[in-house]
Each structure stands twice: as C-alpha cells, then as structure tokens.
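Batch job 17 of 40 flagged for manual review because the log was empty.
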Amino acid sequence: MTDAHTTGYTAVDHGRVRVLVGAERGAYPYANSLLVRGTESTVLIDPSLSLVGSPPPADLVLVSHAHEDHMAGLADHSAPVGVHEHDLEGVRSPEKLIAGLGLGPEAAAAVEKDYRERFHVRERPDATGFGDGAVFDLGGCTVTVVHLPGHTAGHCGFLVEPDGFLFVADIDLSSFGPFYGDAGSSLADFEASMRRCREIEARWYGTGHHKGVVEGAGEFRRRLDAYAGVVDRRSAALLDLLAVPRTLEDIVAHRLVYRPHVQGPHVDPVERRTAVQHLEVLAAQGRVAEVEPGLFRAVGDGRAAPPPAAGPASGG
C-alpha cells in the first residue's frame, strides 16, 4: 500500500514495516524512516526532517547512527530513544555530534547553528545505548540490531522478522558511494560491514537515502557490489594522481569524494580523512610510498622505487 502524506513523505508498506520515504526520494538533507508495528508496540526508526511537525506516534525511537539527517525528528518525540553505544554521546549532545565531524572551532560553531536551526537537533540526555544483536520484541515481530560500523563507529542496521526486512541505513547503494570521511569513520570497518550485509538473507532491503527498498537478495547484492566498487575507483584515481609526487594537501585539493562545485566547511576535512585512509591501505599494499616526508608517490609499474624507510600516511 502507498499513502501520499501531506507533510512531505510517502508511506509504503512492506509487511509490518511502513517505509516513510522522505522528500526528494530521501536525498539529503532528507532521509527515509521506518515505522514497525507489532501487536504490542510500535517502533520508529530514524525520524527524518520530513517527519518534523507531524510525527507518527511510536512507543520507542531507534536511531541508526548519530548524523543530523537521521535524528531531525527527535525533538518531536517524548518516547524513549535508543542508539548504538558507540554513537550514544552524539545523540545526547549536539556538541559531541559535531565533534565527530573533525571540524575546526569556527566551522564547528557554524555547523552547530545549522544543525539546531535546520535539523532541530537538541540535547537528548535520556537516550540510551544498545549493542549488536539487541532484540526489540514488538509483539508478533522483532527488530534486531545489526552493527554495521564504518560510516560512524555506531552505525547500525535493523532486521525486522518474520517479515524479512533489513534496513541498512547509510549503506545507501547510491552512485556517490560509501562515506567514511568523519573523524570516527573507518574504511576498513565500512568494507567489513558491506561484507556482513551481503551475507544476510532478507526479502527486502531498505536504505536511508535515494534507493529506498530493494527486493530480493540477488538484486541487493548486485547493487551492493557496484556500490562497494566506488572504493576501488577512488584508490585507482589516487594512484593515477600519484604518478608524480604529491602532498596530502595536493590530494585534498584534487578531491576523491566531492565534485568541484560542492562547497562547505565539511569538504576539506572529509577529503583529508578519506585520502589518509586510502594512502594507508595503498602503502600497506606496497603501492604507495612516502618518498620524502609528507610527499607521496605511487610505486611499481616503473613509476618509482620505494625508499627503505617508506611508511603509511600520517594524516592531517
């Protein structure tokens, strides 16, 4: 069943799961939310900006991870709030949420203002933490936490059974690719989380943005493999760039993540964190070397020989 809602989202039912598709197909700054209805209680997952002002009633609110677009609707709810323990402080405190972005003081102040005014982010000291495998019994169905770190340290999916609906949140299958550019992000963890998703059998797979719901494990895995391939393309682009020696700041300016027209205080920190992680991986593989302090070059294929003291990038 599909129900067009006047507040900017569209409700689509998949068994007991009602997907609240955000405005603009859930593209940022919007997101997709879930309402899971048991015989005894109802859970709302990721109350998005599209729900602000007209929140569906729920007995419990679960947040997949501490990012502003997945918690914009929390201010409208007095129900208990749960999030993975690794992201708990970011949900409890806007200051801790912004600290996870790795911004300088001036940029952090501007972002906090935006989060409070546009995303209605407020203190939620009552929020509580859960861990991987936590089960919420709603009566007739359960919601099980699937810890999928990488995007943030506490990023989680939720498996609704017996319906067979896996919500993978910001493993969103978009052409943009995986995002692991925050201070608490991890490329290695993100890749492990994608492998874990691939092994979970479900009927439906829901994303936090863009793609919405994918039906069937085969189609989900095909799209997940294409999504994961963006990581390899970023590494390939970096190796091409390092055909001649470059500094970390050269790589940041070139951009592995964002297109040139994208502006904002988050861009350089995200590019820097992403570049550092790729440099570390490629250095460990013997494909990049620090040929002079702070100067990196691709090695092998006749490009350059690594010096004896070659090591991974130290970050910026």
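Reviewer: the log was empty due to a logging misconfiguration, but the result itself is present. The helical segments are 88-92, 94-99, 105-118, 187-198, 217-241, 248-254, 267-284. Unflagging and moving on to job 18.
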